[in-house]
Amino acid sequence: MIGVVFALLAAGRIVTLDDAVQSAREHQPQLRQARANTAAAGARAREALAPLLPQLSATAGYNRRIASGGGTVATSTNTGVISSTQNSFSDSVTAQVLVFDFGSQFNRFRSAQAQSDAQAATERATALQIDFNVRAAYFDTRANAALAQVARENLDNQIRHLQQTEGFVQAGTRAEIDLVQARTDTANARVALINADNAYQTSKLNLNAAMGVQGPTDYDVADTQAPPVLGEDGALDALLEEANRARPEVQSLESQIRADQLTVSSLHGQYLPSVGVNAGFIQSGQSLDQLGWRLGAGVSLTWNIFEGGLTRAQVSEAEANMIAAVAQLDLQRQQIRSDVDGARLAVRAAKESLSATQEALTNARERLRLAEERYAVGVGSAIELGDAQIALAQAAAQAVQADDKLSTARAQLLRALGRQ
Q: What pLDDT is attached to residue 78?
């Protein structure tokens, strides 16, 4: 997919909202990091399972020993001790398994599994946030493209008015001050277009970052408006119920609370002994062809009677972590209510604002038409015409901004509801 996006960017073609969202889902570094964290959490769960499974080990060794023979030998110069060297070979295979430890290791494993579930939910929350970020960046870029078009149309209108005024001044039907005013308005419109184009190019840089790509900005975005969100006009209670059920932040915190509870249970098990069994096969001797062997088996009981209060401190820490996670879950539910209600109200306000701005835009266009007709026949003034041109540019910009607010509010509502 990233190759497709790079091809679109390099070719200066149109990037759609679906292209942008799909690119972000596949290549955003934040999401790749979240996926790696999920994989690491899964690996830690498998690590916690390992002590519950049989353990098998093998060893082999070789020693060369020097042993005294017990006698002495005398010479003309010294007296020495007779010694000999011996080889020693050994090997062993040992198996052991934990039989019972009052659930300490098993609950540790279950806690690691719950933490893995929490991280998986955190990854989904990251994906939701990335979806919102790229949609918001896309709609911002789309709005800036529309604002640049508004500025371009305004400049074209000002140039046309300047040419008309030049003709009137040359004919002597208009004062030269009208020409000076028309030139000033045209210059201002040109500056506005430069700023609008720069804002559009800058917003595409932000969109590239949201998509997780590094590439040029010589492309355009499709004029795609966010479709209505299912239930956006529905009752708040229904939306809240869906959000609390679907938001991965809630699922992550619930899994974390469960992990903390299991950690406490695991630590309580450390107050009591653990029982294990073992069996082994051992060979040893002075040469490889003369190894004697023996089999052994046993039962072990391990009990850490006193560790300086370590276990008690660990239990207190785990209980405090659990209390903090419960409080964080309550805070998250409050935040969800704020997110959902705020996004719902933003959608409602944006709809009403868009309707009003469309009406204002229609009236502004009619006002400019009338002002141009009055100016052409010598009844209207340059000030009246200039005001009408400014009013049209402002009304068009407000309509673009209202449309952008509606699309962004719908993206916020999707995020608040936990929908992708």
A: 54
Q: What pLDDT sits at residue 68?
A: 63
Instruction: For strands 220-221 and 14-15, give the pairing.
Output: parallel
> Is 76 contained in some domain?
no
Question: How many Cβ atoms sit within 10 Å of the Cβ of residue 305?
Answer: 6
Return d(Cα 205, Cα 150) in angstroms, integer.
21
Q: Is residue 243 within 8 Å of 339, Cβ to Cβ?
A: yes
Closest CA relative to residue 205, chosen from 149, 141, 131, 151 = 141
Residue 80: inside a domain: no
Looking at residue 1, what is its pLDDT?
45
Tokens representing residue 92 in the block: 């062993």
- Residue 12: predicted pLDDT: 53
Q: Cβ contacts of residue 323 below 8 Å, gap of 6+?
A: none
We report the CATH number of the domain holding residue 343 as 1.20.1600.10
> What contacts 140, CB < 8 A, 6 or more positions away?
203, 206, 207, 404, 408
Pair type for strands 55-74 and 220-221? unpaired
Q: How many domains does the chain have?
A: 1
Report helix, strand or coil for 187. Answer: helix
Backbone angles phi, psi at 44, to 5 degrees: -65, -35
pTM assigned to the model: 0.82
For the stretch 50-100, pLDDT in tens is 988 998 888 888 888 776 655 555 554 555 555 677 888 888 888 888 888
In the sheet that holds 292-302, the strands lie side by side as 55-74, 79-100, 274-285, 292-302
Q: Do 87 and 62 touch, CB atoms closer than 8 A? A: yes
Average pLDDT over residues 110-122: 94
Tokens read off for 58: 């093998």
Is residue 297 in some structural domain?
no
